[in-house]
Write a structure and sequence with these properties.
CATH class of the largest domain in chain A: Alpha Beta
Distance between the termini of chain A: 57 Å
Radius of gyration of chain A: 25 Å
Helix content of chain A: 25-40%
CATH topology of the largest domain in chain A: 60s Ribosomal Protein L30, Chain: A
Structural class of chain A: alpha+beta
Number of strands of chain B: 12
Shape of chain B: globular
Oligomer: heterodimer
Order of helices and strands of chain A: HEEEEEHHEHEHEE
Shape of chain A: elongated
Largest sheet of chain A: 4 strands, mixed
Number of domains of chain B: 1
Structural class of chain B: mainly beta
Strand content of chain B: over 45%
Number of domains of chain A: 2
Helix content of chain B: 10-25%
CATH superfamily of the largest domain in chain A: OmpA-like domain
Order of helices and strands of chain B: HEEEEEEEEEEEE
Distance between the termini of chain B: 60 Å
Radius of gyration of chain B: 18 Å
Number of strands of chain A: 9
Largest sheet of chain B: 12 strands, mixed
Strand content of chain A: 15-25%
CATH architecture of the largest domain in chain A: 2-Layer Sandwich
C-alpha cells in the first residue's frame, strides 16, 4: 500500500518534469507493423502497435497516450520531408538469354517511369539465373542480364554513373530449386530504385 | 628492383584500401527545404539534393529547414526543422544484408522508414537520443528530442 503510494507520488512528480523526448511507432505503407524498444538504462519499453508512444521525463521513459492529431502536428514537417521511398522490381528473361520476356519488356516501362519521377536516383540491378547449366555459364549469364538492362536504361537517358550492376549466377536463387531445374521465376533481374 | 615493386604494390593496396573506405557513401540527400547543412570534419557546408553522405557526417536543419535522405540499405530518414542528427556508424553488405547502423539524434524531429540493415539481426539498427537508446526491429517510427540537452 505504502509502496504503491510512493510509486504514484513519483509518477505525479515525473509528470511535472518537462518532456525530453517522444517516441512513436507508425503504421507502415506495406501494412506490416514493426517495433522499437526504448532503453533508458533502467527500463526497456517495447512499442509494437501503430501509434504506440513513449515519452522521456527526467531521463526516464514510459508509455504514453499520444493523440494522432498531436503526432501529425509534431512530425508534420518531418513527414513532408520524406523522399520517394525505394522501390523493387523484377523483370524476367527468356531461357538462356539476356532478352526480356514479352511481359517483362512491357513492365520495363514502369521501372523507367519510377526512376524518372525522382529528382535524384540510384539504381541497383542484380542478375539471377535458374539452375540449368554450370556455375560459370550462369554467373556470366546473370551479369549479362543485369548489363543488358543497364544498357537499355542508359540508352533511354538514365545516367550510367547512377546504375550499379551485379550477377549472382545460380548461387542466390529467387525461388529455391534443386540443381538442373528450369525455373522461369529464377531467370530475372532484381532492380532497386531509390 | 624486385623489392621496389613489392613496396609499390603494397603501397598501392594500402592507398586504394584507404581511399575506398573514405569514399564509400552511405546515403544520399534526396530532398531539401530551407536552411540545411552538413557538418563534416568540423566544417559546415550547405546540404543539396544529390549530395552523398558519409559515416560521421552530421545533418542539421535551421528553423525552416528539412532534409530527406535515403541510405544504401534503403533506410529513409526525414528531419523537420531545428534538428541535428549524427550518422555515427554504418556498415552494410548488400549481398547478405549484414550490417549495423547507429544514428545519434541530438535534437529536433526525425521520421524513419527502416531498410535492409534491420534484417541483419534484432540489434543491428540503433538510434541514440540524450535519454534513451532505441532498438529498431523494423518499419516506420518517429522521434522528437526537445532542445537544450
Amino acid at each position: 500500500m505504502q509502496r504503491s503510494s510512493i510509486a504514484l507520488a513519483c509518477l505525479i512528480l515525473l509528470a511535472g518534469c518537462p518532456r525530453q523526448a517522444l517516441f512513436v511507432v507508425l503504421p507502415s505503407e506495406e501494412g506490416a507493423v514493426g517495433a522499437i524498444t526504448v532503453d533508458d538504462g533502467k527500463t526497456v519499453t517495447t512499442l509494437d502497435q501503430p501509434y504506440a508512444a513513449a515519452e522521456a521525463r527526467a531521463g526516464a521513459s514510459q508509455p504514453v497516450e499520444e493523440s494522432r492529431a498531436n503526432i501529425d502536428i509534431t512530425f508534420r514537417r518531418a513527414f513532408a520531408a520524406q523522399p520517394i521511398l525505394p522501390q523493387h522490381f523484377r523483370l524476367y528473361f527468356i531461357l538462356g538469354s539476356d532478352e526480356l520476356t514479352p511481359q517483362s519488356a512491357a513492365a520495363y516501362h514502369s521501372v523507367f517511369d519510377d526512376i524518372k519521377r525522382r529528382p535524384v536516383y540510384q539504381v541497383e540491378v542484380v542478375g539471377h539465373t535458374d539452375t540449368l547449366g554450370d556455375a560459370r555459364t550462369n554467373q556470366t549469364l546473370s551479369l549479362a542480364r543485369a548489363a543488358a538492362l543497364r544498357d537499355r536504361l542508359v540508352r533511354n537517358g538514365i545516367e550510367a554513373d547512377a546504375i550499379s550492376v551485379a550477377g549472382r549466377g545460380k548461387l542466390d536463387l529467387i525461388v529455391p530449386t534443386a540443381d538442373g531445374v528450369s525455373e522461369p521465376r529464377n531467370r530475372c533481374v532484381v532492380i532497386t530504385v531509390r | 628492383m624486385g623489392r621496389a615493386c613489392w613496396f609499390a604494390a603494397a603501397l598501392l593496396i594500402v592507398t586504394v584500401g584507404i581511399s575506398r573506405a573514405e569514399e564509400a557513401a552511405i546515403a544520399q540527400i534526396k530532398k531539401v527545404t530551407g536552411q540545411a547543412t552538413i557538418l563534416r570534419s568540423g566544417e559546415r557546408r550547405p546540404a543539396s539534393v544529390g549530395d552523398n553522405l558519409f559515416v560521421k557526417d552530421v545533418i542539421e536543419t535551421g528553423s525552416e529547414g528539412t532534409i530527406g535522405i535515403t541510405f544504401i540499405d534503403n533506410t529513409v530518414f526525414s528531419t523537420g526543422p531545428d534538428s541535428q542528427i549524427a550518422l555515427d556508424a554504418f556498415e552494410f553488405d548488400s549481398t547478405n544484408f549484414r550490417g549495423s547502423m547507429l544514428a545519434d539524434m541530438r535534437r529536433g524531429t526525425l521520421a524513419v522508414v527502416s531498410g535492409d540493415v534491420t534484417r541483419s539481426s534484432p540489434g543491428a539498427m540503433k538510434v541514440r537520443t540524450p535519454t534513451a537508446v532505441l532498438g529498431v526491429r523494423g518499419t516506420t517510427f518517429a522521434v522528437q528530442v526537445y532542445g537544450d540537452h
